[in-house]
Amino acid sequence: MTDFLDKDYQLPKSEGGYMKFAQWQNKFRILWSALVWWEYFNTDNKPERFKMDDKPENPKNIKQDGKVKHFRAFPVYNYNDNAIQILELTQAGIMWTIKEYLDNEKRGDPTDYDIIVSRKGEKLDTEYTVTVEPKEDVTVEVAEAFTSMTINLDALLEWENPFSTMPF
């Protein structure tokens, strides 16, 4: 055995209530339905968000060369941080893969199994791989911790704190 790292060494946990994909494996369990929205940056370089059914068509105040992008957010249990957090998912490939598992009759609802997103690379050279584990109930501890929390995902649309006073 070498002294390369202290035997008790652990990676630092992410700050705040949001999950970010770190290098290598990111294991999580989706705990509730997703909030889905559209976002673009206006000519003042400020983001504007719209509910899924309110997608702006050809907004006049969109930043030059801007695009209206699709987002999802949902509460997850992040195994790497041992914490319930919100994952704002922006990567189209990950969204499509989760949708494919959702549509697969042997997998179905993504709250029924753990998802692993492996991240490799940086910036424009970042690659993601998505795999899932067999269906398994979430632990009692995670379920109880989640049901005792107050999270309002709709607050994200107004740039407010989702860890507020309104339950799902």
Molecular structure report:
This protein has 168 residues and is of the alpha+beta class. The protein has one domain. Helices cover 12% and strands 30% of the residues. It contains two helices and eight strands, in the order E-E-E-E-E-E-H-E-E-H. It is globular and about 55 Å long. The model has no long low-confidence stretch (mean pLDDT 89).
Write out key terms for the chains shown:
168 residues; alpha+beta; 2 helices; globular
Helix-strand pattern: EEEEEEHEEH
SS strand fraction? 25-35%
The helix-and-strand class reads alpha+beta
Biggest sheet architecture: 8 strands, mixed
Oligomer: single chain
- How many domains make up the 3D coordinates? 1
Low-confidence stretches: none
**Radius of gyration over C-alpha positions, nearest whole angstrom:** 18 Å
Number of strands: 8
What number is the mean pLDDT? Answer: 89
> How helix-rich are the residues, as a percent range?
10-25%
CA-to-CA gap between the ends? 49 Å
Shape: globular
Secondary structure tally, helices: 2
